[in-house]
Amino acid sequence: MRLATFALSAVLPVLTMPSFLSLAEDRITVQPQDNGRALVNPFMGWTFHHYSNIITNYGSKLEPSDTLDDFPGLSVIYLRLPWAFIEEEEGVFNWSIVDTPAQRWIDKGLRVAFRFTCSESWMEYATPRWVEQAGAKGYRFTPGKGTDANGPYWEPDFNDPIFLEKLEHFLAAAARRYDGHPDVDFIDVGSMGVWGEAHTFASTRINYSFEVIKKHIDLHTRYFKKTLLAINDDFAFHDEKAVRYAFEQGMTLRDDSILVQAPPKHYFHADLAQQVWRNLPVILENEHYGASRDRGNWGDGSKYLEAIEDYHAAYASIHWWPREFLSEQSALIDQINRRLGYRLQPREISWPKDTTLQEAFTVKMTWANAGVAPCYPGGFPAITLKDAQGGIVAVFTCESFDVKSLEVGPKDAIPSQTIEFKAKFARNMRPGTFEVFLSVGRRDGTPVIALPLDSNDGHRRYKLGQIEVREG
Q1: CA–CA separation, 432 vs 360, rounded Å?
Q2: 38 three-class SS
Q3: pLDDT in tens, 285-316
């Protein structure tokens, strides 16, 4: 049975240093220290805009072999591009523009995310031109002016039945490839508004009703039944109940407004995040970094860190040329990495210095989550014993404690939780002196979650000390 207590404790110093070791009362007690490094874990991290609507931004200058391995905490490549690039002819799909860059990162064990857009302020037809030729109604527009018969760009009427029919066929094709794909973290509802952001401020300036927005939400949920969908906060500018409706369908929040404007309007919808962050990862996208910097909106970047806290964000964005962003904002990136998403800290672990094969022994642990968001995938602590050759000789999982249950709090008052569980050796276990490793993952002891600890065995198990196991 799990024995749990709750207490408030200060954050341990973010320093790389040996674990504190105690041998009191025939037990070994260690207090691992957070090494301060960035973590790459499921459903959190930095998302890199390989495509940011324009396909020459921002991965275009990277060599095919360059997967930004030097960017701390990068976990997802984000591919946001117009529908027209994929289905240039009706029913003929060229997914190579998506799959080629995606495979570069998937090959490194990272993940991908998508947005497919239908209106852009830089190309005439983000929706394929053949949709208009099939009879779909639309409007030409000039950015900053609105609808304009002589405008250089075309935007569909987002309620037009022909447009919606063709869009549905496209989404069905996309879902056949990507819904439930193990390497896809999320997909945006991007079929409405300029840049797929729902609003039409920079395009036609036409306002759409909740009923129209609902059609787009329902199209996505009809086909993407397994992969997480994200609704943009700017849907609220049409009708806030549209965002609430999306939440009811199991969608999470994506906010693209961070530092587009200067404080105090550096973001608008932290209140919406409060409705979902406890159960689903919130995604933040900042304005194109260089544009925000050059207009003076970025400031010292502290408002981005403030947004991470206020939204309880799991994802942040690399929305610029990545190494320029990294070189100019490395200190801020390090600060964000110590709070972004979840950060599981084993504060203290103890076990008997020696035991016998016949007796069950007690492992005690104190855990904290130093991030701003829950550990969404969940996981169970495991103790693994290895012999001198590195072979696994025993695995014990504490199935009564899911790390997803760890509460989050302010960085100076992070809650902790203490548990204990019994471990009993299998009948074929042999005596000896073994190294003790800690991990978090599946019920069978497979490690999944990276911890901010040194002494990693290369498989997300972390060495803590030793135990002697004797014959009874």
Answers
A1: 16
A2: coil
A3: 999 999 999 999 999 999 999 999 999 999 99
CB crowding 312-323: b at 16 or more within 10 Å, else e:
bbbbbbbbbbbe
Residue 446 CB: number of other CB atoms within 10 A? Answer: 14
Q: Do the Cβ atoms of 462 and 438 come closer than 8 Å? A: yes
Say what the pLDDT of residue 20 is.
52
Cα 198 to Cα 238: distance, rounded to the nearest angstrom:
8
Name the pairing type of β-strands 45-52 and 54-58.
antiparallel
All residues at 6 or more sequence positions from 166 whose CB lies less than 8 Å from its CB, including other chains: 90, 128, 131, 134, 136
The answer to whether the CB of 28 falls within 8 A of the CB of 353 is yes
For tokens 């459903």, the residue is 43
For 415, phi and psi rounded to 5 degrees? -65, 150
C-alpha to C-alpha distance for 144 and 311, rounded to whole angstroms: 30
Q: How far apart are CA 239 and CA 232, in angstroms?
A: 12
DSSP 8-state symbol, 389:
T
pTM of the predicted model as reported, rounded to 2 decimal places: 0.92
DSSP readout, 180-213? Answer: T-TTEEEEE--SSSGGGSS--TTTT-----HHHH
**Residue 9 token pair:** 């404790």
Strand order in the sheet with 138-142: 146-147, 138-142, 153-156
The type of residue at 42 is P
